[in-house]
Amino acid sequence: MSDTQNRCLLYNEEVIPYLEAWKWQKKLQGQRVQNPDLDDALILLEHPPVYTLGKAANSEFIKFDIDKNTYEVHRIERGGEVTYHCPGQLVGYPILNLARHRQDLHWYLRQLEEVIIRVLAVYKLQGKRIPSLTGVWLEGRKVAAIGIKVSRWITMHGFSFNVCPDMEGFERIVPCGIADKPVSSLSEWVPSITCAEVRVHVARCFAEVFGLKLIEQSLNNIHQR
């Protein structure tokens, strides 16, 4: 990569509780809203089992009683409907200043899809978009979901990529509110796949798509700023 490229701080983490990662995202975004000159950032991690709903999500897409359940559920400020996170699903939270890239949310969503499509191409698989829907599909099955929140052109939230998760948790919801298209994971096509392997490709493809130079960091550094 050229030294003239914008820097992006890469926080490559393991399994992090959802609310903890949400707090980190908001802190990183808030810092960049206050100081747009700060470097872009990308958090890659996995979550313990958790359901999240976008700010306008329809609770009818949840098949269990939210008030009488043992599952962790959070309504958050991203767009989109209900989704499920768990270990084996790689989640990416880009904190980007779109003023450096393009101030166009549709473009940004397509770029996030492009990252996943390029990762799938590493395995000689053809990821596809479906017009009017957001996400990435393989042979008609959704393998990556996307939901974002942008404040003063600084992004948060992002994408979740089903690499090798236990898919049972998806049976308790209508994922992303799409009842007629099943969800699946990369492991259906590449049985031995791991998130550790896919992380490397996601980071590289993200850097390529957005023209960024990745700088490894630790989330612990966030508390020191």
From TrEMBL:
Pfam families associated with the record:
LplA-B_cat
Keywords annotated in UniProt: Acyltransferase, Cytoplasm, Ligase, Transferase
The answer on whether this UniProt entry bears the keyword Acyltransferase reads yes
Which residues does this entry assign to the site Lowers pKa of active site Cys? Answer: 142
Enzyme category, top tier: transferase
Provide GO CC annotations from the record.
Answer: cytoplasm
Which GO terms of the molecular function aspect are on file? ligase activity; lipoyl(octanoyl) transferase activity
Is this entry keyworded Transcription regulation?
Answer: no
InterPro entries under this entry?
A: aa-tRNA-synth_II/BPL/LPL, BPL_LPL_catalytic, Octanoyltransferase, Octanoyltransferase_CS
Where is the BPL/LPL catalytic domain positioned along the sequence? 36-214
Q: Where is the active site?
A: 176
Pathway(s) the chain acts in: Protein modification; protein lipoylation via endogenous pathway; protein N(6)-(lipoyl)lysine from octanoyl-[acyl-carrier-protein]: step 1/2
> Which compartments does it reside in?
Cytoplasm
Q: What is its EC number?
A: 2.3.1.181
Q: Which reaction does it catalyse?
A: octanoyl-[ACP] + L-lysyl-[protein] = N(6)-octanoyl-L-lysyl-[protein] + holo-[ACP] + H(+)
Which residues are substrate-binding? 78-85, 145-147, 158-160
Additional notes on this entry: In the reaction, the free carboxyl group of octanoic acid is attached via an amide linkage to the epsilon-amino group of a specific lysine residue of lipoyl domains of lipoate-dependent enzymes.
Q: What does this protein do?
A: Catalyzes the transfer of endogenously produced octanoic acid from octanoyl-acyl-carrier-protein onto the lipoyl domains of lipoate-dependent enzymes. Lipoyl-ACP can also act as a substrate although octanoyl-ACP is likely to be the physiological substrate.
**Which family, according to UniProt?**
Belongs to the LipB family.
Protein name from the UniProt record:
Octanoyltransferase
**UniProt source species:** Calothrix parasitica NIES-267
Print the organism lineage: Bacteria, Bacillati, Cyanobacteriota, Cyanophyceae, Nostocales
Gene name, please? lipB
